[in-house]
Amino acid sequence: MAALWDHLHVNNAIAFGSLLGQNGIHHEALQLQKRVVEELRHSLNADDIDLSNSVWDLALTHSALRQFKEAEKLQEEVLTKRRKVLGEKHPGTISASSNLALFYGKLGRLQDAESLQNTVLEMKKEILGERHPDTINASNNLAATYYKLKRFDEAEKLFKEGANLRKEILGDRHPHTVSALSNLALTYRNLGRLEEAESLQEKVLMLRKKVLGERNPKTIRAQKNLARTHYMLSQSASA
Hints:
The protein is mostly helical.
């Protein structure tokens, strides 16, 4: 990689590192991107957006290699710089916030993830509107964090809103709609609302079979979820 670096202009190195990452050659991409960031730190102002973008690329490669602590540190740097240079409401800043929240979730820092995801959701509602796909995805991410925090009432509210919007915009059979219904059903189950969970899971299983077929892993998972709810209902009835 050192010999290759000697023959590459930094802009070409950036492009080549990105190409390596896109093709799953992450270890080689990591070495090249580290050299790029090192070079840019020496040649550019610390607030330069090109440096920030290269640090972002390096963070994503660390994440692809499941090196989440390294990715987290770099993403925090990117977010700080983008807030300073671009402002809170710039799409690049919002994307950095969303990505950092995902890293926090993977590291078990759920309270930090929730805080960032709340900010991201409010920004996207304000800028894009509540029905925009990016806003719905942001709402789903926050709902998933509430679920992990066992704050099931808050998770239910967002999962239900998301399921209704996806049904209205995408239709009943769209994979995103079906996934939203599955998440809502699991939340009902954790709230002890087993009959509602059962009803939704039966619908999810029917749709999975129709769209994906009986042997698809998502269909099999839907069968297992429904079977678990049936078991819990039988235990409740015999108690």
